[in-house]
Amino acid sequence: MIRRVSVPALFPPPTYSHASVVEAGTRLAFLAGAVPLDAAGQLVGAGDPVRQAEQVLANLGEQLRAVGSGLGHVVATDVYVVSSETAVLSAVWEVVEASGLSAGPHSSTLVGVACLGYSGQLVEITATAVVPDEGTRA
Description:
Blueprint: E1 2-5, E2 19-22, E3 27-34, H1 49-66, E4 74-82, H2 86-98, E5 107-113, E6 123-131
Helix pairs in contact: 1-2
């Protein structure tokens, strides 16, 4: 259903693939950015990008479950981090790697940005995932 491609002519990606190919006829889910808010709308992990990344991934997992998918079926993400420091971006990426998203590995872009939509927000992740048939959900 999902074929992940690392292109031999390009620099080998450390923990992601260059592309993901999904066969025609497969259902896809395009998820809005997962943010570090709890169910009550309160910011989790103020000032802590690693804690915010953990909350964002937990929320992303909830979004995926709601559409009948899971972390293992994510084919692409964009990870936004409010920072210009590569060490901060790397710390957030380590949380992404540990989450199961990179198990594919999926295709991803990690971006340092100036600000995000909620006051104090440091991390946001958008995702595209395959929605598997009932018998193949993860």
